[in-house]
Model the fold of this input.
Amino acid sequence: MMSPQLKYTLIFILVLLARISFGQDCTNYHIDNCRWADRTFLYSRQSKSAVFTPGMRSEFRIIVYGGEEYYMSVDGHRKLGDIRLRVFEDNKKKTLLYDNAEYDYEEYFFFRNTKTRDLIVEVTTEEADDPEEAKEEYCLGVLIEFKETQPESSDDKVGF
Amino acid sequence: MISNPFILSLIAFLILGCKPESKDKHQNAGFQRIVQESPQQQEELPVYYRFPSAREMLKYIKSDALIYRTDLINSTQYLDQYTDSRSQTSNLGVYLADFSYMILFGRTRQARDYFNAIVELTSDLRISIPEEDEITQRISDNLHDIDSLIKISDDYQSYIIDYLIKTDREKTLALISTGSYIEGLYIALNMVTDYKKNMETLERIADQKYAFNHLVRFAKSFPEDVHTKYAIRHLQEINEHFNQLTISGEAIKSERTGSNRMVFKGGEQVTMNKEQFEMLRETVTKIRRDIVKHNH
Done:
């Protein structure tokens, strides 16, 4: 038979755990949930996860090196709906380089990159129908991987 | 002893509820830590800057023309002389870059010593890595397997970064990254023995302009921290050199090349002449000397 003191201590611990679990820890969401490329790619520490709400737009900036191939995949809780991923050159014009809405909201893509550049990675989640649902917070992550491109595959090389 | 479950529960809620919460529920949401509501507000948003690790930087710069130099790394014999938190933090970054450098060039003889130095500084800085014993064992088991060592080194650095982010110590991460970047750049610049024969390497070093720019912007997120101010001062001194480099541009375009495949073409090309290279090397060497200085 459990002593009253032990019982109360257990209740105390359970309450503590319940309270702690209210906070979302999304730090490694991209590692555990995003689709990975094959083993020839290396993990980039520029990958990032964050807490998102439905109908939210947020961005972060990364560097991609010239002559390397990159892989980017996005994943979020199903309540966030289709996730729009756009990549811009970080210049005055904010040149759009990629928009997954043009490709049926594909969740990953590879890109070869000919010159080192600053990129803006912008993520937008779907609006919720119910205003109450729009306040709910969920994890979302962007996984980035890279590998060196073989020189012969450079698309800047044309002709002989 | 308090034995009433109601009082115990109340205490638990009070303790955990005392964390300062933002006025806006969504202040901590999104990469930029703020919800986007209007175009006007969008203009004022803080931006979350990411940057490649020193290992990614060194891997990008590495070429067959470069020869490994043992005299470029910071000796572990000075470890005990880093006793204040600033020198411990920045030199943790230095040793992480040195560790990456020796692994990338296949020089693993000293890797164990450097990993031990990293573990010691990590412990001094109260960065708790639960997987530490397992990783130490993996290092011992794979001392001659370069690919495994790269993976282990990456894993360990990820644990450090995760711990610092989870414990709201990103300003410490800014100083560690500054130490790593300056050490990485110092190594890269000093491996170049002949300006004309290493043009490709120099272009790749010049490309670090972007990464240093992101790192200084990341560090500026913590303007009140005295150690971060030290890091920003050094990074800005280096950025002054990068900002003087010549930039030529081509039209930017992207193309779909297949299913889930794109290519990004054109953009800026940064070039560095011999004089700029020598001035950058001089400045970086001076700053690096300040970071690794010891009492000998």
